[in-house]
Write a structure and sequence with these properties.
DNA-binding; alpha+beta
Amino acid sequence: MHIDFFLTDADYIVIDNKPVIRLFGKTEKGESVIVKDDLFKPYLYVIPIISVKEAKKTISDLELFDKNNVQVIIDSIEIVKKEVDGKSQEILKIFTQTPNDIQRLKDIIKGLDFITSIREFDIAFHKQYLFDNGFSPMTWFSVDGHILGEDSYADFVVIASNIKPKISKSIPKLKIMAFDIETMQTKEDIKEILMLSVATNTGLKKVFSHGKSTFEHSEPVKDEKAIIERFKECIITEKPDFIVGYNSDSFDFTIIKERADKYRIRLDIGMAGQLLTIQKRGMTSAAITKGFVHIDLYQFVFRIMRTTLKSETLTLDNVASELIGEKKLDVDFDKMYDDWKNKRDMKDSARYNLHDSVITLKLAEKILTNISALSKLTGLVPFDSSRSTYGQFVESFAMKKAAQLDVVIPNRPLSDEISNRMEQAPIEGAFVATPRAGLHKNIAVFDFRSLYPSIIVSHNIDPFTFNCSCCKGNPKNKVHGFSYSFCTKKHGFVPTIVEELVMGRYDIKKRMKSLDILSEEYSRLDMDQYAMKTVSNAFYGYLGFAGSRWYKRESAESVTAFGRDYIHKTIAIAENLGFDVLYGDTDSLFLRTDKNIDDILNTFLRDVNKILPGIMELEYEGHFKSGLFVSKKTGTGGAKKKYALLDDKGNMKIRGFEKVRRDWSHLARNTQEVVLQLVLSDKKDEAVSLVKKTILNLKGGKVDLESLIIFNQLTRAIEKYTQKGPHVSAAIRARVAGIDIVPGMVIPYIITKGSGSISSRAVYAPFAKNYDPDYYINKQIMPTTLRILEAVGVSEDELLGKSKQSGLFSFSKK
DNA sequence: TTTGGTGTGGTCTGGA
DNA sequence: TCCAGACCACACC
């Protein structure tokens, strides 16, 4: 038979000493399918010091026993030609029967003196399968095979005789099931499940509640055990491609598992009947359901999206309202517990509970497109890519490409090696120009298109093109200020694959221009190009990352050195053409352009691009009618990484200022924003009166507490702090009051009236009853607005109403 | 198990 | 009471 299917997950099992890859997915008709492949064999590479033939014979003749004196059987040995650390050579590919044998084999042969290196023993078997075959998750495959009469939740199981990727643009309608639970702490460390809701993108809405509920989507069941059983039934009958939750790794599924264990419910909710497992990963855990893939949206938001969000905290409420414009419902938890205990109607709680699942579902529909694009690009299954860091994306992409390009993957560094790398002094980074403080008119902004990736490509920067013997003394590719150079003859692996990303991305962006922004095709391409940007931008960091397989300190150092060199050269060209260089950071340049001088700008752009090699390019970013830089608080000169620009349409672009920092109160942030807007529009008097008015409001106690909350993250356990700042003090007192405080939490607090240090008056926001006007005037409003107003000549006294012209307040300073 | 470095500025701490 | 330096969080790229 023949089928097409869309791959969403993969794992492997070992039956009768034979590994079988299982691919999970969905057919065009929407059936769920498991495709088995038992033709792939586990292997590792051995790089011998002696001839490969000799090494092959020697190893073949050995009897290999592991530390438990159990023999390891070698299935076969092949001599293959591969690129090892930049050099093409013949090596041994040794196959064993099971993936587990690979580990044992490696441990046995690692001491043999004719072996220089053993490779690719540390890659999960199903990943190696996907990489070697060039199979990407979240793409289509066509399969020949026959149906097995095997028991599973899938609509059918196929044993494949042939699997091929299939080019297809379409993405099938995947079924997403969002879920959420409400719990109650009934004992010291026991949380009981009161209700559980599910919502699917095919219209199912259900709340299973222990207790009475007349909510239209409620299905009251007799006890907690029944809630879990109904949830399980729901998964099995719905067969969702993705089961999504928010913080469901460490909360929902962890509790469901604990409670299921208590009632001896078998949570075999994988597509092939696999059990739900909670995998401990250091501090956190991951809840694994194979086939019906569990995605914890919070994990992806936390690891990948966090920096792009404005939300002060990463709660479902904040993230959903920022990304999809939906808020959670209000609920009174005390009432919920009370209703439950007294067996009253729990319809309000049920409505709240379901609503959480519904917004989780909507969020999933948005975020899963990102996760899918990253999976497709890097070869990680969505389960992994939704829980990956930037480093893991780069690594997986590189490993996938290595398999395609016959490159042997470097081993993951051992912990000793990692600590060695970490002990090195940090490498020198980018150049940041000191800005000219003040208000400037007519600013042209330029930046280098993908600076670091384009340097890697254009200068062939790779761990193994470094100081090559073949072009010693060739000045063409030397690094300014270092005795480093990179090969000009042989294209390195890293530059090759980064180029594919960079150029592939430009290609996609070009195609997008001819498409309707609202079309599905457009948004899919947008996700694809974004994934490529994410991975290519992280490559430089990966070269200098201690845990990297492709670590090369000198290469990372060279990337930044080239970057500094180019920005300096570009500044020199601008100055030679008579421009005032106002500012620049890493890859950007701000020039003052007195009038309409398009010609000179074009000359500048052309002159710079003339000296740029390869795919490097300086781009014109845009024109701004005014821009502001402020002085540093301490020291001299303008403050770097802080500026505000006003474009010709009146839109402001604010960087670095307190306005964009969550550790400042909304009052200060919002006031600063308006002040910036007014100052950039030459209305400084209005700005001054706004600040004065704000100060009066504060003094008069007219400001609501909400806008005075300051958010700070607790980056470690409270006990680990040597210096207890306001957020730590507030957290300590909140904990005493019974609030659950965990590392990573963002603490909201307000500085209240009283005497003593600021910390001693920092109160966890929900508990705060008043605020200290002096603190908010002197430590929030003044610093954030004064430095801006000073840039246009307003003094502190003037702002405080103490200058001569405002006679009304012309008292002495004391 | 965390892609890298550069930079600002608040608060605390301890010594003068 | 003042101040420098350490600590800390969060931004930019």
